[in-house]
Amino acid sequence: MLSVVIDTSSLVSYVLTKGKLMSRVVAHWRAGTFRFISSPATRGELEAVLKRPRIQRLANVPLDGLFRGLERFSHHVPGNIDVSGACRDAKDDKFLACAVEGEAQYLVSSDRDLLDMRRFRGVAIVNPGQFLLAVELYPLPKGAIAERFDRDVLAGILETIPLEPDTETRIREAIKC
Q1: Are the C-beta atoms of residues 106 and 76 closer than 8 Å to each other?
Q2: SS3 sequence, 4-59?
Q3: DSSP helix/strand/coil, 165
Q4: pLDDT in tens, 40-64
Q5: Where are the domains of the chain?
Q6: Which of 108, 89, 97, 92 is nearest to 26 (CA)?
Q7: Which CATH number fits domain 2-127: 3.30.559.10, 3.40.50.280, 3.90.1010.10, 3.40.50.1010?
Q8: What is the DSSP string of 132-157?
Q9: Which of 93, 94, 137, 167 has the fewest CB atoms within 10 Å, counting from its CB?
Protein backbone atom coordinates (compact mmCIF):
# COMPACT_ATOMS: atom_id res chain seq x y z
CA MET A 1 0.00 0.00 0.00
CA LEU A 2 1.20 3.50 -0.77
CA SER A 3 2.07 5.81 2.10
CA VAL A 4 1.35 9.48 1.46
CA VAL A 5 1.73 12.86 3.12
CA ILE A 6 -0.68 15.60 2.02
CA ASP A 7 0.33 19.13 2.87
CA THR A 8 -1.87 21.80 4.41
CA SER A 9 -2.20 23.80 1.18
CA SER A 10 -3.82 20.87 -0.60
CA LEU A 11 -6.16 20.04 2.28
CA VAL A 12 -7.20 23.69 2.67
CA SER A 13 -7.85 23.85 -1.08
CA TYR A 14 -10.18 20.87 -0.65
CA VAL A 15 -11.91 22.54 2.30
CA LEU A 16 -12.47 25.80 0.45
CA THR A 17 -13.32 24.58 -3.04
CA LYS A 18 -14.16 20.89 -2.73
CA GLY A 19 -12.46 20.72 -6.12
CA LYS A 20 -12.64 17.59 -8.23
CA LEU A 21 -8.98 16.60 -7.91
CA MET A 22 -8.68 16.91 -4.16
CA SER A 23 -12.14 15.38 -3.70
CA ARG A 24 -10.87 12.34 -5.59
CA VAL A 25 -7.68 12.25 -3.49
CA VAL A 26 -9.76 12.38 -0.29
CA ALA A 27 -12.07 9.67 -1.68
CA HIS A 28 -9.04 7.43 -2.28
CA TRP A 29 -7.89 8.05 1.30
CA ARG A 30 -11.33 7.18 2.66
CA ALA A 31 -11.44 4.05 0.49
CA GLY A 32 -8.12 2.90 1.92
CA THR A 33 -6.22 3.15 -1.37
CA PHE A 34 -3.32 4.73 0.48
CA ARG A 35 -2.15 5.27 4.02
CA PHE A 36 -2.18 8.93 5.07
CA ILE A 37 0.87 9.85 7.16
CA SER A 38 0.87 12.76 9.60
CA SER A 39 3.06 14.14 12.35
CA PRO A 40 2.35 16.41 15.32
CA ALA A 41 3.73 19.34 13.31
CA THR A 42 1.62 18.67 10.19
CA ARG A 43 -1.55 18.08 12.21
CA GLY A 44 -0.83 21.16 14.31
CA GLU A 45 -0.47 23.39 11.28
CA LEU A 46 -3.66 22.05 9.72
CA GLU A 47 -5.60 22.50 12.96
CA ALA A 48 -4.36 26.10 13.32
CA VAL A 49 -5.34 26.94 9.73
CA LEU A 50 -8.76 25.28 10.02
CA LYS A 51 -9.49 27.34 13.15
CA ARG A 52 -9.06 30.62 11.28
CA PRO A 53 -12.42 32.43 11.15
CA ARG A 54 -12.12 33.10 7.42
CA ILE A 55 -11.52 29.40 6.68
CA GLN A 56 -14.42 28.36 8.92
CA ARG A 57 -16.70 30.86 7.22
CA LEU A 58 -15.78 29.78 3.67
CA ALA A 59 -15.45 26.02 4.23
CA ASN A 60 -17.40 23.72 1.92
CA VAL A 61 -16.81 20.59 4.01
CA PRO A 62 -17.31 19.89 7.73
CA LEU A 63 -14.01 20.93 9.31
CA ASP A 64 -14.40 18.94 12.50
CA GLY A 65 -15.03 15.77 10.51
CA LEU A 66 -11.96 16.31 8.38
CA PHE A 67 -9.70 16.92 11.34
CA ARG A 68 -11.19 14.03 13.37
CA GLY A 69 -10.72 11.79 10.34
CA LEU A 70 -7.11 12.86 10.10
CA GLU A 71 -6.59 12.23 13.80
CA ARG A 72 -8.28 8.84 13.69
CA PHE A 73 -7.47 7.48 10.26
CA SER A 74 -3.92 8.57 9.58
CA HIS A 75 -0.71 6.87 10.52
CA HIS A 76 0.98 9.08 13.12
CA VAL A 77 4.74 9.42 13.12
CA PRO A 78 6.36 11.00 16.18
CA GLY A 79 8.02 13.87 14.33
CA ASN A 80 11.58 13.11 15.41
CA ILE A 81 13.35 13.72 12.09
CA ASP A 82 14.89 17.14 11.48
CA VAL A 83 15.42 18.24 7.88
CA SER A 84 15.91 21.94 8.60
CA GLY A 85 16.80 23.91 5.50
CA ALA A 86 15.75 21.19 3.05
CA CYS A 87 13.11 23.38 1.40
CA ARG A 88 13.56 27.00 0.37
CA ASP A 89 10.53 27.76 2.56
CA ALA A 90 11.43 26.51 6.04
CA LYS A 91 7.72 26.17 6.93
CA ASP A 92 7.51 23.29 4.46
CA ASP A 93 10.31 21.25 6.06
CA LYS A 94 7.76 19.64 8.40
CA PHE A 95 6.09 17.88 5.45
CA LEU A 96 9.40 16.60 4.11
CA ALA A 97 10.36 15.35 7.59
CA CYS A 98 6.99 13.63 8.00
CA ALA A 99 7.31 11.95 4.60
CA VAL A 100 10.83 10.69 5.33
CA GLU A 101 9.96 9.51 8.83
CA GLY A 102 6.79 7.79 7.63
CA GLU A 103 8.60 6.22 4.67
CA ALA A 104 6.07 7.79 2.31
CA GLN A 105 6.31 7.25 -1.40
CA TYR A 106 4.50 10.53 -2.15
CA LEU A 107 4.11 14.02 -0.78
CA VAL A 108 1.06 15.68 -2.33
CA SER A 109 1.29 19.45 -2.44
CA SER A 110 0.01 22.52 -4.23
CA ASP A 111 2.98 24.53 -2.94
CA ARG A 112 5.53 25.54 -5.58
CA ASP A 113 8.38 25.51 -3.03
CA LEU A 114 7.82 21.78 -2.53
CA LEU A 115 6.80 20.90 -6.09
CA ASP A 116 9.95 22.43 -7.54
CA MET A 117 11.98 19.93 -5.50
CA ARG A 118 10.34 16.97 -7.35
CA ARG A 119 11.99 14.45 -4.98
CA PHE A 120 13.43 14.41 -1.51
CA ARG A 121 15.19 11.40 0.00
CA GLY A 122 13.22 8.97 -2.15
CA VAL A 123 9.86 10.73 -1.74
CA ALA A 124 8.18 11.84 -4.97
CA ILE A 125 6.64 15.32 -4.59
CA VAL A 126 3.59 15.72 -6.80
CA ASN A 127 0.50 17.87 -7.22
CA PRO A 128 -2.97 16.34 -6.68
CA GLY A 129 -3.52 15.58 -10.38
CA GLN A 130 -0.17 13.85 -10.71
CA PHE A 131 -0.90 11.86 -7.58
CA LEU A 132 -4.21 10.64 -9.00
CA LEU A 133 -2.37 9.31 -12.06
CA ALA A 134 0.22 7.68 -9.78
CA VAL A 135 -2.57 6.01 -7.76
CA GLU A 136 -4.11 4.71 -10.98
CA LEU A 137 -0.79 3.33 -12.22
CA TYR A 138 0.39 1.86 -8.91
CA PRO A 139 -1.55 -1.45 -8.95
CA LEU A 140 -1.18 -2.10 -12.69
CA PRO A 141 1.27 -4.71 -13.97
CA LYS A 142 3.49 -3.67 -16.90
CA GLY A 143 1.27 -5.47 -19.43
CA ALA A 144 -1.82 -3.56 -18.34
CA ILE A 145 0.12 -0.29 -18.45
CA ALA A 146 1.30 -1.08 -22.00
CA GLU A 147 -2.26 -1.87 -23.11
CA ARG A 148 -3.78 1.20 -21.51
CA PHE A 149 -1.22 3.86 -22.45
CA ASP A 150 0.63 4.76 -25.64
CA ARG A 151 4.46 4.60 -25.44
CA ASP A 152 4.77 8.35 -26.05
CA VAL A 153 2.33 9.05 -23.23
CA LEU A 154 4.32 6.79 -20.92
CA ALA A 155 7.56 8.52 -21.89
CA GLY A 156 5.90 11.86 -21.15
CA ILE A 157 4.77 10.61 -17.76
CA LEU A 158 8.32 9.56 -16.91
CA GLU A 159 9.65 12.95 -18.01
CA THR A 160 7.17 15.08 -16.11
CA ILE A 161 5.92 13.20 -13.05
CA PRO A 162 8.10 11.96 -10.20
CA LEU A 163 6.92 8.43 -9.37
CA GLU A 164 7.78 5.90 -6.72
CA PRO A 165 10.45 3.47 -8.00
CA ASP A 166 8.29 0.35 -8.56
CA THR A 167 5.77 2.19 -10.75
CA GLU A 168 8.57 3.92 -12.63
CA THR A 169 10.20 0.54 -13.34
CA ARG A 170 6.93 -0.98 -14.59
CA ILE A 171 6.38 2.00 -16.91
CA ARG A 172 9.92 1.65 -18.31
CA GLU A 173 9.24 -2.05 -18.90
CA ALA A 174 5.84 -1.26 -20.49
CA ILE A 175 7.51 1.10 -22.94
CA LYS A 176 9.68 -1.82 -24.11
CA CYS A 177 6.63 -4.09 -24.70
Answers
A1: no
A2: EEECHHHHHHHHHHCCHHHHHHHHHHHCCCEEEEECHHHHHHHHHHHCCHHHHHHC
A3: helix
A4: 999 999 999 999 999 999 999 989 8
A5: 2-127, 140-177
A6: 108
A7: 3.40.50.1010
A8: HHHHHHTT--HHHHHHHS-HHHHHHH
A9: 93
